[in-house]
């Protein structure tokens, strides 16, 4: 609503520019001049109609603006603050959702990127005491089908332990194993396998409004 | 002093004078057969079997075809095919008869005075001949097993009648085949058994000849770890869903399904029956890790935790046939390896030896029905291969080498193993005969996994 007037002013200015010939310097002398007057007349009529419509719209907007000004300001402030919260919640959820990855047939948390990701999740959990998460451990397709269920479970436990040994209550972190049953990448390459050896985090409670750490 | 070579000469001459079959058998047993590890292959020592032709009817031909294939798949015989492939030329005609005798109905009457040409069968290398025939007087179908050398009838077996598309009829013919194997080889065959396996989340059962494949679990679910109750009436399997897995018992006759009560929580899998069918052992994964549990099905009570691995996982239990011990997988050495314990969880120790830092992961153990061996798969250069360990000596031998070969399961004869192999490009169920090393493909559907071999299916 706030932007309505400038938008219409711009539209009107563009239309006027178009009606005035647009590119007068580039336009050669028209070969056919018979209908030029009627074309110009039609353009002028069209322009007049548009100008009138724009003026009418601007007037209505102005009335609406003045009558709802206080309400608008109040709502805007509210929505600005809600927007901030929801944007922050989304950002924090994205931090949580980032999967950690594992080496082949290993459940250890890898130093570097993966440990850093868990440190970030740790700070999120510390900043949001009401938040609970669940970790689903996955394996690539290469190991034994049934052993992979145990391996996925071990991976989820390993990530959980990383957080609980740093002070997060075990009751806030659930675990489950998906084995090799839900690959993130259905391929059969090293890259696919690396992508599939993962721990996925999902929010199970307290995810309504999350605070950035 | 007579040179060594001269002393052995009479033996050589004697050997040359014995039957060609025996000579061939002895000549083809070199000590170094190379690629086949730990398998003694002795072609020609196996009895020769000839399945005789006879009158063509759909029933008789189907029965002969199933029987012939079963005898071949038993891996106990040399199947003899006649020159030109037409076994019908060895007929059962009366001596002197010019040909089949027409009857009023236009069909050939079963010759009551069978001419059994023992010398011919013997010349073809047959030790046994089998004739499938119909008694036109009574309408009964029978399989007669002839002892070619003894020139006698060894056994007459009644063959049920039915259509080839009926799994019950096929199973009945498989039972006849197994009896023929018993007569000719001393112990019964395993044709009258089935395999259950998983394909795309669904459990299927299939006959050993690849026929009569039927789904047994619901569509759209993820079934895992199928196993048979002793006797083959019920299946046990995990229904995996979003990281949780209850274990169900399914009655294959009624279709009725029952939850094993303590498995309603957590992820429970690799269920295995004790030989008496009273106890179920399984793996449970929870946030305490993965451990082996038992539950008494007979009295519906008493969940018992057999392993406590705080930093290791314990899974895939399999009972010894006397029910006293359980082999299982443990990750306590770092990588999964095969361990054993008493059925009450005491006395846990390493079972299949391995070289630390050298030997690959070992998984999916299954104790053989005779108790003498444990089959499992072990990673060799990144691919699982089927191994068998001799329980007494704890020596392991590798049975496979082409492609991925995993999840071995024993036939009730303790001579065959079914396993999953991708040697042809897709994962299929294969069977290997431990005596000869012969392998054959059972399924042709792809993505097959986790096979389990039933005991003999009783009528």
List keywords for this structure.
heterodimer, A: 213 residues, alpha+beta, 60s Ribosomal Protein L30, Chain: A, four-stranded mixed sheet, 5 helices, 4 strands, disordered N terminus, B: 459 residues, mainly beta, Neuraminidase, 2 domains, five-stranded mixed sheet, four-stranded antiparallel sheet, 14% helix
What does this structure look like?
The complex is a heterodimer of chains A (213) and B (459). Chain A contains five helices and four strands, in the order H-H-E-H-E-H-E-H-E. Chain A is an alpha+beta fold. Chain A folds into two domains: 81 residues; 108 residues, OmpA-like domain (60s Ribosomal Protein L30, Chain: A), CATH 3.30.1330.60. A four-stranded mixed beta sheet of chain A has the order 1-4-2-3. In chain A, strand 2, helix 4 and strand 3 form a beta-alpha-beta unit. In chain A, helix 1 runs antiparallel to helix 2. The N terminus of chain A is likely disordered. With 459 residues, chain B is mainly beta. In chain B, the strands form seven sheets. Chain B has a five-stranded mixed beta sheet with strand order 2-1-3-4-5, with helices on one face. A four-stranded antiparallel beta sheet of chain B has the order 8-7-6-29, with no helix packed on it. In chain B, helix 3 packs across helix 5. The N terminus of chain B is likely disordered. The chains are: A alpha+beta (213), B mainly beta (459). Chains A and B meet through helix 4 and strand 3 of A and strand 9, strand 13 and strand 14 of B.
CATH architecture descriptor of the largest domain in chain B: 6 Propeller
Helix count of chain B, per DSSP?
Answer: 5
Examine the coordinates and then state which fold CATH places here, giving the name of the CATH topology of the largest domain in chain B.
Answer: Neuraminidase
C-alpha Rg of chain A, in Å? 31 Å
Number of helices of chain A: 5
Structure summary, number of beta strands of chain B: 29
Structural class determined from secondary elements of chain B: mainly beta
Shape of chain B: globular
Strand order of the largest sheet of chain A: 1-4-2-3
Helix content of chain A: 55-70%
Question: What is the level-2 CATH architecture name of the largest domain in chain A?
Answer: 2-Layer Sandwich
């Amino acid at each position: 609503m706030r932007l309505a007037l400038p938008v219409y002013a711009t539209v009107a200015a563009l239309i006027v520019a178009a009606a005035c010939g647009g590119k007068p310097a580039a336009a050669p002398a028209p070969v056919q001049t018979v209908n030029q007057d009627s074309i110009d007349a039609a353009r002028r009529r069209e322009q007049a109609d548009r100008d009138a419509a724009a003026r009418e719209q601007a007037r209505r907007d102005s009335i609406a603006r003045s009558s709802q000004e206080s309400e608008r300001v109040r709502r805007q402030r509210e929505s600005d603050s809600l927007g901030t919260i929801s944007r922050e919640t989304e950002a924090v959820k994205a931090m949580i959702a980032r999967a950690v990855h594992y080496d082949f047939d290993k459940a250890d948390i890898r130093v570097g990127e993966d440990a850093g990701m868990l440190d970030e999740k740790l700070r999120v959990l510390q900043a949001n005491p009401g938040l609970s998460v669940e970790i689903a451990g996955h394996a690539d397709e290469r190991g034994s089908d049934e052993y992979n269920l145990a391996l996925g479970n071990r991976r989820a436990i390993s990530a959980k332990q990383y957080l609980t040994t740093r002070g997060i209550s075990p009751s806030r972190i659930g675990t489950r194993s998906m084995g090799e049953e839900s690959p993130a990448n259905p391929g059969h390459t090293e890259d696919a396998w690396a992508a599939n050896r993962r721990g996925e985090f999902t929010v199970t409670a307290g995810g309504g409004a999350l605070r950035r750490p | 002093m007579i040179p060594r070579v001269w002393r052995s000469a009479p033996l050589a001459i004697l050997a040359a004078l014995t039957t060609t079959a025996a000579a061939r058998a002895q000549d083809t047993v070199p000590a170094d057969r190379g690629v086949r590890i730990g398998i003694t292959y002795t072609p020609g020592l196996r009895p020769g079997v000839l399945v005789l032709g006879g009158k063509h009817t759909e029933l008789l031909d189907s029965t002969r075809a199933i029987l012939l294939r079963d005898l071949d798949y038993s891996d106990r015989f040399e199947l003899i095919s006649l020159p030109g492939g037409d076994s019908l030329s060895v007929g059962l005609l009366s001596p002197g008869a010019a040909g089949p005798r027409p009857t009023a109905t236009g069909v050939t009457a079963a010759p009551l005075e069978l001419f059994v040409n023992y010398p011919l069968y013997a010349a073809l290398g047959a030790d046994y001949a089998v004739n499938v025939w119909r008694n036109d007087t009574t309408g009964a179908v029978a399989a007669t097993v002839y002892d070619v050398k003894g020139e006698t009838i060894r056994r007459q077996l009644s063959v049920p009648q039915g259509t080839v598309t009926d799994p019950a009829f096929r199973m009945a013919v498989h039972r006849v085949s197994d009896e023929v194997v018993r007569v000719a080889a001393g112990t019964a065959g395993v044709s009258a058994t089935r395999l259950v396996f998983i394909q795309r989340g669904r459990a299927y059962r299939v006959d050993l000849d690849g026929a009569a494949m039927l789904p047994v679990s619901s569509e759209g679910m993820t079934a895992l770890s199928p196993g048979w109750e002793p006797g083959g009436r019920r299946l046990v399997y995990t229904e995996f869903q979003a990281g949780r897995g209850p274990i169900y018992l399914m009655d294959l006759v009624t279709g009725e399904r029952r939850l094993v009560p303590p498995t309603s929580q957590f992820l429970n899998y690799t269920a295995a029956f004790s030989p008496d069918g009273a106890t179920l052992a399984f793996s449970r994964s929870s946030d305490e890790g993965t451990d082996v549990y038992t539950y008494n099905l007979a009295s519906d009570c008493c969940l018992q935790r057999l392993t406590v691995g705080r930093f290791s996982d314990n899974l895939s239990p399999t009972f010894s046939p006397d029910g006293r011990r359980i082999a299982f997988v443990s990750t306590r050495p770092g990588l999964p390896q095969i361990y054993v314990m008493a059925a009450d969880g005491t006395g846990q120790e390493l079972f299949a030896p391995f070289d630390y830092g050298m030997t690959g992961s070992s998984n999916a153990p299954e104790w053989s029905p005779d108790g003498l061996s444990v089959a499992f798969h072990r990673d060799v250069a990144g691919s699982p291969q089927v191994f068998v360990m001799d329980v007494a000596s704890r020596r392991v031998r590798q049975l496979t080498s082409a492609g991925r070969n995993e999840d071995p399961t024993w036939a009730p004869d303790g001579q065959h193993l079914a396993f999953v192999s991708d040697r042809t490009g897709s994962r299929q169920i294969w069977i290997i005969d431990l005596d000869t090393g012969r392998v054959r493909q059972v399924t042709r559907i792809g993505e097959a996994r986790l096979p389990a071999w039933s005991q003999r299916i009783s009528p």
